[in-house]
Amino acid sequence: MKKHYSVLILVLLAALSLNAQTWTLKGDFNLNLTQNAYSNTWAGTEKGSITWVAGSNLSAEKALSPLFYNINSLKLAFGQTHQQAQNTAGDNYWAKPVKSTDKIDAEALVKMTMKAFVNPFAAVRMESQFIDLSDPSLTRLINPMLFTESAGVTRNFIENGNEVLSSRLGFAVRENLNRDVLMSLPDNRENVTTIDGGIESVTEYKNIFAPANVSFNSKLRIYQALFNSKSDDYLHEEWKSPDLNWENTVSFKLYKAVSLNLYLQTIYEKEQIAELQFKETMGLGFSYNLF
User: What is the pTM of this model?
Assistant: First the structure.
């Protein structure tokens, strides 16, 4: 398997962390639940269901030196939906749960603090999921894995207390590793790696509205590939189309650890489907600040 430059970056970060300032840690854990149920005598066709989503957002920041600043983030989420079904006798029962949410997103970024209009940065990111159920004959853990190494310039346009607006632009190389892919029957499996490179833009806005106990986070990623190691496999050169991922999270703190959370995501990846994809999750849940 190809050696990732990500490992070299992580080693460099560990070396720079020696004798650096203490970490500024932030983290939370949240659990959202949605439930409804119907009796066997219910006249309608509705079915009961229970949906739960657990997630955590962690970050660690510190100055590695007077010139370098390090920002690390980890986002985890997993959830399932349990739904009622009906047997041949007309009785309701709870069917096997299905996965509704699954996300692993880790990123390490180092930027130079030269107090210039823009500052250079380098970042490494890994995206995956806990359970891959795309192959009915084999359940794979932490698969596929998308590694992104990027470098360019970054700038904070707004940095006022809880309100931050930052943007970065640079060149990125992505490596998508799909393990144990079934190539032919009965069980010929191989690791499949796709490498591409291009221009990546990331813009993020964060704000906490203290009087209303409302937090808002919006992140827009746009990626334009310039080359692809498997370009010959695409009939219509779908890989040349820009990718878009826009995530928005709104959290209303109702009372102490009780909150109302709304998550909206818009994705456009022509390699998957030539249409916009939307995801919305809303629920009343429990939220606890770890740090």
Answer: 0.86
